Amino acid sequence: MITSPDIHNSCHNRKDCKRFNTCPMTLVHKLISGKWKILILWYLCGGALRFSDLKRKLPHVTQKMLTNQLRSLEEDGLIYRKVYPVFPPKVEYGLTDIGNSILPMLKEMYSFGINYSKNL
Predict the structure, then answer these.
(1) Residue 81: beta bridge partners?
(2) Among candidates 55, 44, 53, 25, which has minimal Cα distance to 100?
(3) How far apart are CA 19 and CA 8, in angstroms?
(4) Three-state SS for 63?
(5) DSSP 3-state assignment of 96?
């Protein structure tokens, strides 16, 4: 992650940005960048889902990539992973409180997509 104070000098929002060790936009980019992270978060906004449900909603993602993206989101505290003590194992993924706080941003992105497609 970029923590150099020099990075703030080139930011158009440098006055506010300098208060932080890392540019907030750089931090958000790190948290949600990845080919499938935004869609995973979007689908989890509707409630907890099992791995197979997410895989079904994202048919072009490989199992390995989905696993990696879920692990990354979990490590960053945006989602939780709940394992039920049953056989066969049942695992659910859902949004944490901080993950739920991203919902307004995702809704804005959704609205932008609607507006953009109307203007094509």
Answers:
(1) 93
(2) 44
(3) 10
(4) helix
(5) coil
Distance, CA of 46 to CA of 63 (rounded, Å)? 21
- Residue 25: per-residue pLDDT: 83
Sign of CA dihedral 29, 68, 101, 112: positive
Q: What is the pLDDT of residues 5-27, one digit of tens each?
A: 555 566 666 666 677 777 888 88
Strands (E), 19-75: 49-50
* Structure token digits, residue 73: 């989101």
Name every residue whose Cβ is closer than 8 Å to that of residue 109 and which is 6 or more positions away in sequence. Answer: 38
Low-confidence stretches of the chain (pLDDT < 50) are: 1-3
Is there a contact between 79 and 95 (Cβ–Cβ < 8 Å)?
yes
Alpha helices in 1-120 (DSSP H): 6-9, 14-17, 24-32, 37-44, 51-57, 63-75, 97-100, 103-118
**CA 10 to chain centroid:** 26
